[in-house]
Amino acid sequence: MSELHQAEDIRQLTEKVREQNYFFTLLKQEINKAIIGQEYMVDRLLIGLLGNGHVLLEGVPGLAKTLAIKTLADAVEGEYSRIQFTPDLLPADVVGTMIYSIKENDFSIKRGPVFANFVLADEINRAPSKVQSALLEAMQEKQVTIGDETMALPKPFLVLATQNPIDQEGTYLLPEAQSDRFMLKCNITYPDFEDERKIMQMIATSHMPEIRPVISLQNVVEAKELVNKIYLDEKIEKYILDMVFATRFPEKYGLPELKNLISFGASPRASINLAIAARAMAFLKNRAFVIPEDVKEIAKDVLRHRIGLSFEAEAEEITADQIVDKILAKVQAP
User: Fold this and answer.
1) Tens of pLDDT along 252-270?
2) Average pLDDT, stretch 178-206?
3) 238, 265 in Cβ contact below 8 A?
Protein backbone atom coordinates (compact mmCIF):
# COMPACT_ATOMS: atom_id res chain seq x y z
CA MET A 1 0.00 0.00 0.00
CA SER A 2 1.39 3.41 -0.98
CA GLU A 3 1.95 6.09 1.66
CA LEU A 4 -0.70 8.25 -0.05
CA HIS A 5 -3.36 5.52 0.20
CA GLN A 6 -2.33 4.78 3.77
CA ALA A 7 -2.66 8.44 4.76
CA GLU A 8 -6.10 8.61 3.12
CA ASP A 9 -7.23 5.46 4.99
CA ILE A 10 -6.02 6.90 8.30
CA ARG A 11 -7.85 10.19 7.56
CA GLN A 12 -11.13 8.34 6.89
CA LEU A 13 -10.61 6.17 9.98
CA THR A 14 -9.95 9.29 12.07
CA GLU A 15 -13.38 10.67 11.10
CA LYS A 16 -15.05 7.40 12.18
CA VAL A 17 -13.07 7.41 15.44
CA ARG A 18 -14.29 10.95 16.22
CA GLU A 19 -17.90 9.94 15.55
CA GLN A 20 -17.71 6.90 17.84
CA ASN A 21 -15.61 8.70 20.46
CA TYR A 22 -18.54 11.05 21.08
CA PHE A 23 -20.46 8.21 22.79
CA PHE A 24 -17.50 7.42 25.04
CA THR A 25 -17.13 11.10 25.95
CA LEU A 26 -20.76 10.98 27.10
CA LEU A 27 -20.07 7.75 28.98
CA LYS A 28 -17.08 9.27 30.77
CA GLN A 29 -19.07 12.38 31.71
CA GLU A 30 -21.85 10.20 33.13
CA ILE A 31 -19.38 8.11 35.20
CA ASN A 32 -17.68 11.27 36.48
CA LYS A 33 -20.97 12.37 38.03
CA ALA A 34 -20.46 9.71 40.71
CA ILE A 35 -16.68 9.12 40.55
CA ILE A 36 -14.64 12.17 41.49
CA GLY A 37 -10.89 12.47 41.04
CA GLN A 38 -10.19 8.96 39.73
CA GLU A 39 -9.62 9.72 36.04
CA TYR A 40 -6.89 7.07 35.77
CA MET A 41 -9.27 4.36 37.02
CA VAL A 42 -12.14 5.48 34.76
CA ASP A 43 -9.86 5.55 31.68
CA ARG A 44 -8.62 2.02 32.43
CA LEU A 45 -12.18 0.73 32.78
CA LEU A 46 -13.02 2.26 29.39
CA ILE A 47 -9.91 0.69 27.85
CA GLY A 48 -11.04 -2.68 29.22
CA LEU A 49 -14.50 -2.08 27.73
CA LEU A 50 -13.07 -1.09 24.32
CA GLY A 51 -10.54 -3.93 24.31
CA ASN A 52 -13.05 -6.48 25.60
CA GLY A 53 -10.51 -7.24 28.32
CA HIS A 54 -10.93 -7.95 32.01
CA VAL A 55 -9.70 -5.41 34.57
CA LEU A 56 -8.34 -5.96 38.09
CA LEU A 57 -8.46 -2.94 40.42
CA GLU A 58 -6.22 -3.06 43.47
CA GLY A 59 -6.31 -0.50 46.24
CA VAL A 60 -7.10 0.07 49.89
CA PRO A 61 -10.77 0.17 50.95
CA GLY A 62 -12.85 3.27 50.26
CA LEU A 63 -11.36 4.33 46.91
CA ALA A 64 -14.63 3.83 44.95
CA LYS A 65 -13.41 0.72 43.10
CA THR A 66 -16.75 -1.10 43.46
CA LEU A 67 -18.74 2.10 42.87
CA ALA A 68 -16.79 2.83 39.65
CA ILE A 69 -17.58 -0.60 38.22
CA LYS A 70 -21.26 -0.36 39.23
CA THR A 71 -21.47 3.14 37.72
CA LEU A 72 -19.92 1.94 34.43
CA ALA A 73 -22.48 -0.87 34.25
CA ASP A 74 -25.34 1.55 35.00
CA ALA A 75 -24.18 3.95 32.27
CA VAL A 76 -24.13 1.17 29.63
CA GLU A 77 -27.30 -0.62 28.65
CA GLY A 78 -26.19 -4.09 29.72
CA GLU A 79 -26.73 -6.77 32.32
CA TYR A 80 -24.78 -6.38 35.56
CA SER A 81 -24.14 -8.84 38.36
CA ARG A 82 -22.04 -8.74 41.49
CA ILE A 83 -20.31 -11.67 43.16
CA GLN A 84 -19.00 -11.05 46.66
CA PHE A 85 -16.04 -13.41 46.98
CA THR A 86 -15.75 -15.03 50.43
CA PRO A 87 -13.80 -18.04 51.74
CA ASP A 88 -16.94 -20.23 51.82
CA LEU A 89 -17.94 -19.50 48.20
CA LEU A 90 -18.26 -22.52 45.87
CA PRO A 91 -17.64 -22.69 42.08
CA ALA A 92 -21.36 -23.37 41.55
CA ASP A 93 -22.11 -20.02 43.23
CA VAL A 94 -20.24 -18.36 40.35
CA VAL A 95 -21.00 -20.31 37.17
CA GLY A 96 -24.18 -22.19 38.15
CA THR A 97 -25.03 -25.85 38.65
CA MET A 98 -27.31 -28.76 37.72
CA ILE A 99 -30.53 -29.00 39.75
CA TYR A 100 -32.69 -32.11 39.92
CA SER A 101 -36.42 -31.54 39.47
CA ILE A 102 -38.66 -34.19 41.06
CA LYS A 103 -41.61 -32.96 39.01
CA GLU A 104 -39.78 -33.27 35.68
CA ASN A 105 -37.69 -36.26 36.80
CA ASP A 106 -34.72 -34.64 35.13
CA PHE A 107 -31.82 -32.26 35.70
CA SER A 108 -32.01 -28.61 34.65
CA ILE A 109 -29.30 -25.97 34.58
CA LYS A 110 -29.46 -23.03 36.97
CA ARG A 111 -27.21 -20.31 35.56
CA GLY A 112 -24.93 -18.45 37.92
CA PRO A 113 -24.27 -14.69 38.18
CA VAL A 114 -21.42 -14.97 35.66
CA PHE A 115 -24.04 -14.82 32.88
CA ALA A 116 -24.04 -11.03 32.51
CA ASN A 117 -22.27 -8.38 30.44
CA PHE A 118 -20.51 -6.88 33.45
CA VAL A 119 -19.50 -9.17 36.29
CA LEU A 120 -18.12 -7.49 39.40
CA ALA A 121 -15.88 -9.97 41.24
CA ASP A 122 -15.65 -8.04 44.51
CA GLU A 123 -12.58 -8.81 46.66
CA ILE A 124 -11.62 -11.67 44.35
CA ASN A 125 -8.65 -12.63 46.54
CA ARG A 126 -10.95 -13.61 49.44
CA ALA A 127 -12.07 -16.85 47.74
CA PRO A 128 -9.89 -19.98 47.45
CA SER A 129 -8.26 -21.08 44.18
CA LYS A 130 -11.01 -23.52 43.19
CA VAL A 131 -13.51 -20.65 43.07
CA GLN A 132 -11.11 -18.30 41.27
CA SER A 133 -10.45 -21.09 38.77
CA ALA A 134 -14.18 -21.35 38.05
CA LEU A 135 -13.76 -18.03 36.23
CA LEU A 136 -10.90 -19.26 34.00
CA GLU A 137 -13.03 -20.74 31.20
CA ALA A 138 -15.45 -17.81 31.35
CA MET A 139 -12.68 -15.20 31.11
CA GLN A 140 -10.68 -16.88 28.34
CA GLU A 141 -13.23 -18.74 26.20
CA LYS A 142 -16.25 -16.50 26.98
CA GLN A 143 -18.24 -19.65 27.71
CA VAL A 144 -19.25 -21.82 30.66
CA THR A 145 -19.53 -25.61 30.84
CA ILE A 146 -22.02 -27.07 33.34
CA GLY A 147 -22.37 -30.85 33.23
CA ASP A 148 -22.10 -31.80 29.56
CA GLU A 149 -23.53 -28.53 28.24
CA THR A 150 -21.44 -25.57 27.10
CA MET A 151 -23.12 -22.17 26.99
CA ALA A 152 -21.82 -18.95 25.45
CA LEU A 153 -21.68 -15.85 27.62
CA PRO A 154 -23.32 -12.58 26.47
CA LYS A 155 -21.31 -10.07 24.41
CA PRO A 156 -19.56 -8.01 25.52
CA PHE A 157 -18.46 -9.95 28.61
CA LEU A 158 -16.18 -8.28 31.13
CA VAL A 159 -14.98 -9.40 34.54
CA LEU A 160 -14.15 -6.33 36.61
CA ALA A 161 -12.49 -7.46 39.82
CA THR A 162 -11.30 -5.70 42.96
CA GLN A 163 -8.81 -6.77 45.58
CA ASN A 164 -7.42 -5.33 48.77
CA PRO A 165 -3.58 -5.36 48.94
CA ILE A 166 -3.21 -4.79 52.69
CA ASP A 167 -5.13 -7.67 54.31
CA GLN A 168 -3.27 -10.99 54.56
CA GLU A 169 -5.65 -12.92 56.80
CA GLY A 170 -8.43 -14.67 54.90
CA THR A 171 -7.02 -13.87 51.46
CA TYR A 172 -5.63 -16.08 48.70
CA LEU A 173 -3.10 -15.07 46.05
CA LEU A 174 -4.48 -15.17 42.52
CA PRO A 175 -2.93 -18.09 40.58
CA GLU A 176 -0.63 -16.94 37.76
CA ALA A 177 -2.99 -18.45 35.14
CA GLN A 178 -5.89 -16.46 36.61
CA SER A 179 -3.93 -13.24 36.99
CA ASP A 180 -2.63 -13.45 33.39
CA ARG A 181 -6.20 -13.42 32.05
CA PHE A 182 -6.73 -9.88 33.29
CA MET A 183 -5.91 -7.45 30.53
CA LEU A 184 -5.02 -4.72 33.03
CA LYS A 185 -4.10 -4.57 36.70
CA CYS A 186 -4.56 -1.03 38.02
CA ASN A 187 -3.18 0.26 41.30
CA ILE A 188 -5.67 2.81 42.66
CA THR A 189 -4.39 5.60 44.90
CA TYR A 190 -6.01 8.20 47.17
CA PRO A 191 -7.79 11.21 45.63
CA ASP A 192 -6.19 14.62 46.12
CA PHE A 193 -7.31 17.15 48.76
CA GLU A 194 -9.86 19.11 46.70
CA ASP A 195 -11.37 15.99 45.11
CA GLU A 196 -11.83 14.42 48.53
CA ARG A 197 -13.52 17.62 49.73
CA LYS A 198 -16.06 17.27 46.84
CA ILE A 199 -16.61 13.59 47.70
CA MET A 200 -17.17 14.45 51.37
CA GLN A 201 -19.67 17.19 50.48
CA MET A 202 -21.56 14.94 48.04
CA ILE A 203 -21.91 12.09 50.54
CA ALA A 204 -22.64 14.36 53.53
CA THR A 205 -25.55 16.02 51.72
CA SER A 206 -26.82 12.65 50.37
CA HIS A 207 -26.69 14.23 46.93
CA MET A 208 -25.82 11.06 45.00
CA PRO A 209 -26.40 11.60 41.27
CA GLU A 210 -28.65 9.26 39.31
CA ILE A 211 -26.68 7.41 36.63
CA ARG A 212 -28.61 6.76 33.44
CA PRO A 213 -27.66 4.63 30.41
CA VAL A 214 -26.01 6.86 27.79
CA ILE A 215 -24.52 4.22 25.50
CA SER A 216 -25.88 0.94 24.12
CA LEU A 217 -24.14 -2.42 23.83
CA GLN A 218 -24.31 -1.97 20.04
CA ASN A 219 -22.26 1.25 20.38
CA VAL A 220 -19.68 -0.70 22.38
CA VAL A 221 -19.49 -3.49 19.77
CA GLU A 222 -19.09 -0.96 16.92
CA ALA A 223 -16.40 0.94 18.81
CA LYS A 224 -14.56 -2.32 19.54
CA GLU A 225 -14.55 -3.18 15.81
CA LEU A 226 -13.16 0.29 15.09
CA VAL A 227 -10.45 -0.09 17.74
CA ASN A 228 -9.25 -3.27 15.97
CA LYS A 229 -8.72 -1.21 12.78
CA ILE A 230 -6.60 1.52 14.42
CA TYR A 231 -3.23 1.69 12.67
CA LEU A 232 -0.33 0.05 14.50
CA ASP A 233 2.95 0.65 12.69
CA GLU A 234 5.56 -2.12 12.42
CA LYS A 235 7.96 0.02 14.48
CA ILE A 236 5.38 0.23 17.29
CA GLU A 237 4.83 -3.54 17.07
CA LYS A 238 8.60 -4.07 17.46
CA TYR A 239 8.64 -1.63 20.41
CA ILE A 240 5.90 -3.64 22.15
CA LEU A 241 7.71 -6.94 21.53
CA ASP A 242 11.06 -5.50 22.68
CA MET A 243 9.42 -4.38 25.92
CA VAL A 244 7.87 -7.81 26.58
CA PHE A 245 11.03 -9.72 25.59
CA ALA A 246 13.07 -7.48 27.93
CA THR A 247 11.10 -9.00 30.83
CA ARG A 248 12.21 -12.48 29.69
CA PHE A 249 15.79 -11.82 28.57
CA PRO A 250 16.82 -8.54 30.24
CA GLU A 251 20.55 -9.13 29.63
CA LYS A 252 19.94 -8.99 25.85
CA TYR A 253 18.54 -5.49 26.25
CA GLY A 254 21.40 -4.12 28.33
CA LEU A 255 19.64 -4.78 31.65
CA PRO A 256 21.73 -7.56 33.27
CA GLU A 257 20.90 -6.23 36.74
CA LEU A 258 17.27 -7.37 36.25
CA LYS A 259 18.14 -11.00 35.50
CA ASN A 260 18.22 -12.07 39.15
CA LEU A 261 15.16 -9.98 40.03
CA ILE A 262 12.75 -11.66 37.57
CA SER A 263 11.73 -15.30 38.10
CA PHE A 264 9.61 -15.37 34.93
CA GLY A 265 8.81 -12.80 32.26
CA ALA A 266 5.54 -11.66 30.71
CA SER A 267 3.56 -14.15 28.61
CA PRO A 268 2.47 -13.67 24.96
CA ARG A 269 -0.83 -12.33 26.34
CA ALA A 270 1.19 -9.28 27.41
CA SER A 271 2.14 -8.48 23.78
CA ILE A 272 -1.43 -9.05 22.59
CA ASN A 273 -3.01 -6.97 25.35
CA LEU A 274 -0.42 -4.19 25.09
CA ALA A 275 -1.28 -3.80 21.39
CA ILE A 276 -5.05 -3.84 22.07
CA ALA A 277 -4.79 -1.45 25.03
CA ALA A 278 -2.56 0.96 23.04
CA ARG A 279 -5.16 1.01 20.24
CA ALA A 280 -7.93 1.67 22.79
CA MET A 281 -5.84 4.48 24.31
CA ALA A 282 -5.41 6.04 20.84
CA PHE A 283 -9.19 5.78 20.30
CA LEU A 284 -9.92 7.61 23.58
CA LYS A 285 -7.52 10.34 22.45
CA ASN A 286 -9.37 10.73 19.13
CA ARG A 287 -6.58 9.21 17.03
CA ALA A 288 -6.71 6.48 14.36
CA PHE A 289 -3.07 5.51 14.89
CA VAL A 290 -0.93 4.45 17.85
CA ILE A 291 2.08 6.47 19.00
CA PRO A 292 4.84 5.32 21.42
CA GLU A 293 3.32 7.42 24.25
CA ASP A 294 0.15 5.28 24.12
CA VAL A 295 2.26 2.17 24.75
CA LYS A 296 4.28 3.84 27.53
CA GLU A 297 1.14 5.12 29.28
CA ILE A 298 -0.49 1.69 29.48
CA ALA A 299 2.65 -0.49 29.85
CA LYS A 300 2.62 -0.79 33.67
CA ASP A 301 -1.06 -1.76 33.78
CA VAL A 302 -0.48 -4.57 31.26
CA LEU A 303 2.86 -5.83 32.61
CA ARG A 304 2.86 -5.42 36.40
CA HIS A 305 0.89 -8.62 37.13
CA ARG A 306 2.69 -10.67 34.48
CA ILE A 307 6.22 -10.31 35.82
CA GLY A 308 7.27 -12.87 38.41
CA LEU A 309 9.50 -11.37 41.10
CA SER A 310 12.35 -13.46 42.50
CA PHE A 311 13.04 -13.89 46.24
CA GLU A 312 15.95 -11.49 45.77
CA ALA A 313 13.64 -8.78 44.40
CA GLU A 314 11.17 -9.29 47.26
CA ALA A 315 14.00 -9.16 49.80
CA GLU A 316 15.19 -5.86 48.33
CA GLU A 317 11.55 -4.63 48.17
CA ILE A 318 11.76 -4.09 44.41
CA THR A 319 8.36 -3.94 42.72
CA ALA A 320 7.22 -4.95 39.24
CA ASP A 321 6.51 -1.26 38.54
CA GLN A 322 10.16 -0.39 39.20
CA ILE A 323 11.26 -3.13 36.79
CA VAL A 324 8.89 -1.83 34.09
CA ASP A 325 10.24 1.71 34.66
CA LYS A 326 13.79 0.46 34.01
CA ILE A 327 12.67 -1.34 30.85
CA LEU A 328 10.82 1.77 29.61
CA ALA A 329 13.94 3.86 30.22
CA LYS A 330 16.21 1.39 28.39
CA VAL A 331 14.16 0.09 25.43
CA GLN A 332 14.38 2.67 22.67
CA ALA A 333 11.04 4.03 21.42
CA PRO A 334 10.59 4.51 17.66
Assistant:
1) 999 999 999 999 999 999 9
2) 86
3) no
